[in-house]
Amino acid sequence: MNTKRRDFLKTAAIASAGTIVAPGMGFAKSKNEKVKLAFIGTGARGIWHLNNALLREDTEVVAICDTDDNAIKNALKYVEKHGKKKPQIFGKNELDYRNMLDLKEVQGVIISTPWVWHTPMSVDSMKAGKFTGVEVSAAMTLQECWDLVNVHEETGSHLMILENVCYRRDVMAVLQMVREGLFGESMHARCGYQHDLRNVKFNNGVDIYGGGVEFGEKGASEAKWRTHHSLHKNGDLYPTHGAGPVATYMDINRGNKFDTISSFATKARGLNEYIIEKGGKDHPNANLPWKLGDIVTSTISTANGETIIVTHDTNLPRPYSLGFRFQGTKGLWEHEDGYSAKHGNLMYIDGQTKPHQWDDAKQWLDKYDHPLWAKYGETATGAGHGGMDFFVMHDFVNSIKHNIAPPLDAYDAAAWSAITPLSERSIEEGGAVQHFPDFTRGKWFKREPIFGKNEVYL
């Protein structure tokens, strides 16, 4: 961010962030009133959100929807375990969620379904006047990205993208360091989703993870739907775990914006080899023409002159890593998940660390622990994904309570999710540069960064 822009933002009031009040949107009238939530999708991801809502004293789960009877049964076990009232059940068909949205008492809706349903369900939920939380990615096409923004603006209903990695403790500590100027002016970042998903994309139709090489109707859980995207699409299919945190560092949509993207993909080999290894060369899936390149690399430029490298790597054997790097004019942070702290979590601050030598990042992350984690870290333990999921639900519920815009909003959902269709188009055109739409319609220049700063949450 340039100096003049930084000075302008420092003098702007946080309250000017653009809070929109939805006409007729229900919200808690007092801190003692429970926020009434409904859940669409109670599978592997949705059950975490449901459990975290059930753990809170300020929420009431009034309805759940899922077309899978086993998912409903499992969800009800959680409700019973927490001693809560049985919610209304929906899911007799794929559109029964709309009947759930007709419930006047529902204030907030959490959507944790297969990707193709995220935008249609979010649009319907916002049109019904509900405060909507949607899992990642929020949209699969540019038109869907615009649908989320347009419906939010037309209805005044809020949308929050439920990107939990933005709330990871070390990620938020680095955000604190960025805002305190430790890294100087922002220059470059690296991030991605590098996760061996072969035993998620394929299983035996019974177990969630592995045990076979089936997918689609013969698969279970995510293998029923996620794998089809690898067969038919070639692009960064899951960008927000990395791009979301980096976007908060670089004030994307709030003083800065994604400008261009250029993407390339390797050949596709990993899934074929996995099928042959686990199921044999004569298995019906062994010779399928997988479209998704094993490694997709995208380079993004921003309006303020930074660059971001985003990597998608889910088809090859490797340890998990989001591959974070954030670099400014005064230093940088490098983190490779899965490595030891000495070799994989590193910090260098010019003039404060030894010249040309890395520091173990832990001492810096401890020193700049974000106020949210300092206050709620003990409570967050056990909430899922190292405590990140607690903060996702915490911000979602508190936004409803105070009827304010969420810290990760519809514009963020659109900009981050747009990486998928734009990377697909760039790869199809031989790496040609694609331009990000300005989903804020010019408002990005004056919008104030609020993620992790709103006093309501502290």
Task: Summarize this structure as a short list of keywords or feature phrases.
single chain; 458 residues; alpha/beta; 9-stranded mixed beta sheet; 6-stranded parallel beta sheet; 15 strands; 34% helix; glycosidase; Gfo/Idh/MocA family oxidoreductase; Gfo/Idh/MocA-like_OxRdtase_N
Question: Could you walk me through the main structural features you see in this protein, from its secondary elements to its overall organization?
Answer:
- By secondary structure, the protein is α/β, with parallel strands linked by helices.
- The chain is 34% helix and 17% strand.
- It is built from 17 helices and 15 strands.
- Strands 14-13-12-11-7-10-9-8-15 form a nine-stranded mixed beta sheet. A six-stranded parallel beta sheet has the order 3-2-1-4-5-6, with helices on both faces.
- Helix 3 links the parallel strand 2 and strand 3.
- Helix 2 (46-55) runs parallel beside helix 3 (69-81) and helix 5 (118-127) packs parallel to helix 6.
- The protein is globular, with a radius of gyration of 22 Å.
- The relative contact order is 0.16.
- Mean pLDDT is 92; it is low at 1-29.
The count of helical stretches stands at 17
> What structural category arises from helix and sheet content?
alpha/beta
| Total count of strands | 15
Mean pLDDT: 92
Identify the quaternary structure here: single chain
Topology, pairings included?
Blueprint: H1 3-11, E1 35-40, H2 46-55, E2 59-65, H3 69-81, E3 88-90, H4 97-101, E4 108-111, H5 118-127, E5 131-134, H6 142-155, E6 159-161, H7 169-179, E7 186-194, H8 198-201, H9 226-232, H10 240-249, E8 258-265, H11 270-279, E9 295-302, E10 307-313, E11 324-328, E12 331-335, H12 341-344, E13 345-349, E14 359-360, H13 362-367, H14 371-380, H15 388-402, H16 410-417, H17 419-428, E15 434-435
Parallel strand pairs: 1-2, 1-4, 2-3, 4-5, 5-6, 7-10
Antiparallel strand pairs: 7-11, 8-9, 8-15, 9-10, 11-12, 12-13, 13-14
